[in-house]
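Figure 3 (text version): C-alpha cells given as input.
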C-alpha cells in the first residue's frame, strides 16, 4: 500500500535536477511524454543528485558503478511537449551495498507532480561486476543526505513493495 504523494510545494523544496522542457522528439502519439522517457529523465536526475555524494558521472572509469536492482513506477499526471520539468530526489536509506531512493518528476509549468520512480540501486565493483560495500566517503555522503531527508516534514510516498534487504 503506497502512502499519499507529497504536494508540489513540498517537493519543490528539494534541489532540482535534469531540468528541461519536454522535447518534441520525446512526444508519443498521445501528445505527451512517451512512457520510456519518464524513467530515463528520472534516472538522469538521480545520477546528478549523487555527484556531490562522491558518485561522479564517470564512476565506472574509476572502477565503480551503480546498477539498478528494482524500480516501482507511478504515473500521476501527463507531461506534454514544452512543459518544464525537473527531478527531485529523496534518499530513504542504505545498506552495506544498496540504497533506496524516490525520484519525483515535477511538471513545473503546471506546478504538479507528474511521476514517481522508486528505486533500489547497488554499488558495483567494476573489476568483478558484483556488488561491493560502498566506499567509506560515499557511505558517509549517503548517510548525511539520508539523515537530511529523514528530517523533511512530510512522509515519503513509498510504494510498499520495495525496500532494502
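Below: residues designed for each position.
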Amino acid at each position: 500500500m503506497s502512502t499519499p504523494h507529497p504536494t508540489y510545494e513540498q517537493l519543490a523544496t528539494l534541489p532540482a535536477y535534469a531540468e528541461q522542457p519536454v522535447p518534441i522528439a520525446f512526444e508519443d502519439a498521445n501528445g505527451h511524454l512517451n512512457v520510456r522517457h519518464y524513467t530515463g529523465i528520472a534516472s538522469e536526475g538521480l545520477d546528478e543528485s549523487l555527484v556531490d555524494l562522491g558518485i561522479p558521472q564517470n564512476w565506472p572509469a574509476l572502477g565503480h558503478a551503480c546498477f539498478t536492482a528494482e524500480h516501482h513506477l507511478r504515473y500521476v499526471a501527463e507531461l506534454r511537449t514544452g512543459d518544464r520539468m525537473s527531478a527531485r530526489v529523496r534518499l530513504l536509506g542504505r545498506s552495506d551495498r544498496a540504497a533506496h531512493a524516490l525520484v519525483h518528476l515535477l511538471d513545473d509549468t503546471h506546478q504538479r507532480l507528474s511521476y514517481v520512480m522508486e528505486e533500489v540501486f547497488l554499488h558495483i565493483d567494476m573489476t568483478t561486476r558484483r556488488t561491493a560495500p560502498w566506499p567509506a566517503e560515499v557511505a558517509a555522503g549517503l548517510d548525511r543526505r539520508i539523515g537530511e531527508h529523514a528530517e523533511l516534514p512530510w512522509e515519503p510516498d513509498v510504494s510498499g513493495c520495495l525496500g532494502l534487504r
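Helices lie at 8-11, 35-50, 136-150.
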